[in-house]
Each structure stands twice: as structure tokens, then as C-alpha cells.
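Open question from group meeting: does this chain pack into something compact, or does most of it stay loose? Before anyone orders reagents, we agreed to write out a predicted structure and look at it together. Recording both the input and the output here so the notebook holds the full record.
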Amino acid sequence: MAEPEGRVLPIYLVADVSASMQDHFPTLHSGLQTLREKMEESPAAAAAVRFSMILFGSRVETLMRIADFNEISSVPSFQNLGGTNYTIAFQELARQIPLDVDLLKAENYRVLRPAVFFLTDGYPNEGGDWTRARDQLMSPANKRRPNIMAFGVGEADAATVSAVASRPQYAFISMAGADMGGALSEFMAALQRSVVSSGVNVSAGGGLIVADPKGFTRIEAEEID
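C-alpha cells returned:
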């Protein structure tokens, strides 16, 4: 059997692009462009991370399939997808993650537990009881369940954001009255630091690093079947 190509960490940006987010799409787009540039400057990080972007509103779109940053030539544009339906976002993750893990394993990589950065600016108002889809994704029986970091901005509800996150310390919400554009800029900066730092750490034998305004949280690396 051939030696493994190395260890890779799949990272998913799952972003709420409901109508209330539309004015801030340029901030998100610019932040992703900066992330791509930073990864170009860090070959070790780029080699250890695979990135995907899922957008959701009244419908869900996997706008960027899991890919090596070296294969991402441009960042797709965001679009208004209407309401806020968490159910379809979790269903898309449940569908996509096994396919992506199988793809990476077929390429002879050792795959770490996926990391999801979930961004929302409001309360889910479509799709019924979204917690069932979330719980199915995060069931202990699902060996490929991800770590979920949840970030709430704008009118997001703190209790809802906490219920999305896979661990209590992974729930972040912007301060009451915070400027929406500023909060999203801070989120994108934290995402950039997390992705680059995690990539460097994985390449050195470590695992996921989550950056937040208060510092970093380290999660022990965990291989999955």
C-alpha cells in the first residue's frame, strides 16, 4: 500500500445569505479574497487544508466544492437567497461531507474531522424544526460528524447560536449594538487566522485552531474512519 499523501483538514464556510445580509456581501467577498491570498503566501497551510463554501437562505447552494487553495483561482460572488432556513444547511453538510471525505481518502490522504464555520445574522424563519437536521448530522453514530463553530452577528439570537455550535466554547456572538459591517469584518479576520493557523498546525502534526477576538482555542487532532 502506498504511503499516505499527508493529513488534511476539510474546512467549510456555511454562510447565511438571507436578504438582511445583502448589503454586506462585499465585506464577505473581500475577506475570502484576502484568505486566498494569505494561503498563497503559506504553502504549508495550503497543503494541509481543503476548503468549501455553502450558502443558505430559502435554498442552499454549495458555491465552492471542496478544493485545494492552489486550485481556487477566484472567489465566487455572493447572492441573496431569501429567508433563513437552517435545516437545508445541515442537510447539505450531511450530504456533502461524506462525499468529500471519500474523495480525499481516495486521493490517499489521512482526513481530520471537518471544521464548519457557521455564520448567521438572524433567527431561522423557514424549514421547521432545524434542530433535528443538526442532531442527525452531529449524532455520535456519524463517525464523520464535524466540529461546528457558530458565529452570530446582527439580530442573531445567542441561545440559537449556542445550539448550533458543537461545543459551548465554539459559540460566538457580536456585542449588542455592534456595527454589522465591523462585526463581519471581525468574523472574516478570525476565519482567516483560523484557516491559516490550522493549516500550519496540521502540517506540523497538530490539529484545528479556532481564532476568536479573545484568542485561540486548540482542538486535539482526530482522525476519522
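Observations to bring back to the group:
The helical segments are 25-40, 43-48, 86-106, 130-137, 158-164, 180-203.
Residues 48 and 89 are 25 Å apart (CA to CA).
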